[in-house]
Amino acid sequence: MPTAVHVTAPSRLHFGLWSLGAAGARQFGGVGAMIQEPSLKLSLTPAENFQISGQNAPRAVEYARRWAKFHGQNLPSCHLKIEAVIPEHAGLGSGTQLALAIAAGLNAFAELPSQSPQELALSVSRGLRSAVGTYGFVFGGLVVEQGKLPDESISPLDCRIDLPETWRFVLVRPRGLTGIAGREEVETFAALSAVPQPTTDELVAMTRDGLVPAAATADFATFSDSLYRYGRLSGECFAAKQGGPYNGPVLAALVQQLRARGHVGVGQSSWGPTIFAVVPSASAATSLASELAAQPDDLEVQISAPCNSGARIEVTGGRRVEQPVGD
Known about the structure:
Oligomer: single chain
Largest sheet: 7 strands, mixed
Helix content: 25-40%
Number of strands: 11
Number of helices: 10
Strand content: 15-25%
Radius of gyration: 19 Å
Shape: globular
């Protein structure tokens, strides 16, 4: 048995979905990226019985129970401590990262065989819609997923590539706002109209002809322009709920303000309220963050580098098990 397992998971930026509501066709699909901060951290150490402490403990207990049911075994005798969390309902993939971190941590502590990203997600009932956060947890980088067919449990991975390590994302979040999650999100998806096929085709083309090759060649200008146009078009598919391509007038105004400052690659992550701007260097990120901090607006501002390696799982003692693995 290990004497300790430590898991550090990155946040997820979701640039937007490709498809929704087309009967018999692939659903969801889309593009996102993993970033180093804010990060989730948890540890597992031996104990007399299974116990959880820290933020989001009730939610974490449910994920642990799902993991035990999936594997057909009791929870191991350990203390699972949540040491740092990703803000909830902020568009940063907090639920998926928490669930997968718990699954990967329990796998390592119980010394189970390695699992694929799909198995990891299924063990805690994640990946029901987008799988960007699932593949991002394991692989990091820029993630493109194909979308799910009706008989698929998890969307297949289309591709993933490293983002240039010098680039930075400046995250801006108005205090007091939250995104859409839980039952409200389920009801919203059920009520939205289908995305027209020409729109899906255009989003896929923007991904394959713009975002992916620009990231692969470190073409910052093309990536930034493609990122903005992609996010705006994808956001328009949710205008019936959001009131436009962004979730409300406050976020729409923030996007406009950042672009007016000369930052092209601006977008909304998932339902928001996190707005991001990609910048070419750490110094450019520091400059923008300082400008925003000097404003009277009540904004949370954070700088983050890309995360190209996915979650980090460190095991002390016990039998070495590599966690997790790709197909």
